[in-house]
Amino acid sequence: MTAVSIAGVSKVFNQGRPDEVTALSDVDLTVDSGQFVSLIGPSGCGKSTLLRLIADLIDPTAGTVTVAGKPAAQARRDQEYGIAFQQAGLFEWRTVRRNVELPLELRKVPKAERRVRAEEMLTLVGLADFAGHYPAQLSGGMQQRVAIARALAVHPPLLLMDEPFGALDEMTRERLQGELLQICAKTGTSTVFVTHSISEAVFLSDKVVVMSARPGRITATVDIELPGRDEAARQSPAYFEYVTAVRKALRA
Amino acid sequence: MRYVRSVLPPVLVGVLSVVLWEVVVTAGRIAPFILPAPSAIWDQLVEQRDNVVDAALASGTNALVGLVGGTVVAVLAALLFSRSKLLSDIAVPYAAVVNALPIIALAPILNNMFDSTSSLPRRVVAGIIAFFPVFINTLRGLREVDPTHRELMDSYAAGGWTFARLVRLPGALPYVFTGLRQASSLAVIAAVVAEYFGGLQDGLGARITSAAAFTAYPRAWAFVVGACVLGLVFYLTTLLLERLATPWKSRS
Predict the structure, then answer these.
(1) Is it true that the peptide bond before A103 is cis, omega within 30 degrees of 0?
(2) Residues A79 and A154: beta-carbon distance below 8 Å
(3) Are B78 and B92 in contact, with CB atoms under 8 Å apart?
């Protein structure tokens, strides 16, 4: 079963105008069910654009995007995915609990069930005690965890993340990476993860997709097989070999 | 303790300046038509308290009706104009220009348009004056939407009305109150000053002019004090409403 299937996708912004930009050119990509795939590349390589195409936030100029076996637009309407951005993007006028409940509210989930589900998600990200707080009362790392809880609230089969840890310090970042892997393993969620950190991509992923800019396209795919995903894995020779492999692919 | 520290200095300064005022006026033998002593004003305030309260209630009602009317129209207009970028781009400079005009100058015209027993002219002036700060600020708030919030709501496939109700309106609420804070004081000033130009003479403005015309300066000042208190009540009530309506602002 494939979670995401992208075939012959191109994206041109401002087509036919002097400021025309080819963001993506002829991209093919498959994400298997339960797989963790990272998109990595320099700024302007179109990795965020690719994520937004999967999310159906923008339309491809050519090619097809299939999510959970249906066209991306249908998948978006059916809330087949949860999404988190570099900015946590919490609604500051809603408490943490009500932020997590929002996607459920839009799905018309009954109030009592919403509450239970939000509670469960907040426990998952370790913020059950902060349900009644407002976002401004939380640190950046905590806000990002709320955003992840919100993305997971509808139990989506697919999680899309656009540099969600980009604005965090290294320590918080590594802790959240560990938490994210545990959550994905526990829920069986497939993940597409945009990052510009090689070590982050290698540590998290089953597959690292390396992209290059102008025009944005996929230049290499590195399959990662680490024995575990813990502190020991971060020190293992295999890990460093993969980091080197991805770095070489980025330079090529 | 923190409360005491924030309240004590301004209160102390207030008390000291009143004492200083009293000393300067009595010791300097300043004529009452230039500046009456606070004690003389206080005596008049006590003696005329029923008149002051009646006049303040009349002016306060006019200001309140104008403020509420102007605010409702302003918020509705802002909602309408924020629907299109072109429309709001046109509206903002005009609103700014009209806001800079002395709207109080309309008072004599409006006073002549209506019956001399009508309270409407003063309320209309207060309403027009209250309209602009609320309109300009609300429009700005409605237009400023966090791009992450927009993408997130798109990913939830939320429609235009859902987006307005869940994101744009609550996001604009702090801006509405910024406008309302300005408008609340302005509405009181407008309701009082409009009486200087004729119309029904039952408010603070009329009392101030008639007392001054009879050279009863301490009495005129007593009504001025009434106007100050009225303005303060409006402003503080707005602050209180703001706190109640935007709890996430005060808890960070």
Answers:
(1) no
(2) yes
(3) no
Closest-CA distance, B136 to chain A, in angstroms, reads 22
Residue B40 near residue B33 (C-beta atoms within 8 A)? no
Please tell me the distance in Å from B240's CA to the nearest CA on chain A.
17
Three-class SS state of A41: coil
DSSP letter at B199 equals: S
Mean of pLDDT over chain B: 88
CB A24 within 8 A of CB A49: yes
What pLDDT score does B64 carry? 95
ipTM of the complex: 0.85
Determine the Cα angle at B98 with ends B239 and B195, to 5°. 70
- The answer to whether the Cβ–Cβ distance between A85 and B148 falls below 8 Å is yes
What is the rounded distance in angstroms from the CA atom of residue B155 to the CA atom of residue A73?
Answer: 10
DSSP H helices in chain A = 47-54, 72-77, 96-106, 111-124, 140-152, 170-187, 198-204, 231-235, 237-251
- B172-192: string of b/e by CB count within 10 Å (b at 16+)? bbbbbbbbbbbbbbbbbbbbb
* A99, A146 contact by CB (below 8 A): yes
Mutate to test the interface with A, among B156, B166, B175 (most CBs of A within 10 A): B156
Tokens linked to A62: 């050519």
For the stretch A150-202, pLDDT in tens is: 988 888 889 999 988 887 788 878 888 888 888 888 888 999 999 989 999 99
Distance (Å, whole) CA B113 – CA B116: 9
* Structure-token pair, residue B74: 């302003």
The H-or-E segment that residue A6 falls in is: strand A2-13
d(CA A96, CA A132): 6
Asked if the bond preceding B170 is cis, omega within 30° of 0, the reply is: no
Q: Say which residue the tokens 């609320």 belong to.
A: B134
For strands A158-162 and A190-195, give the pairing: parallel
pTM of structure: 0.80
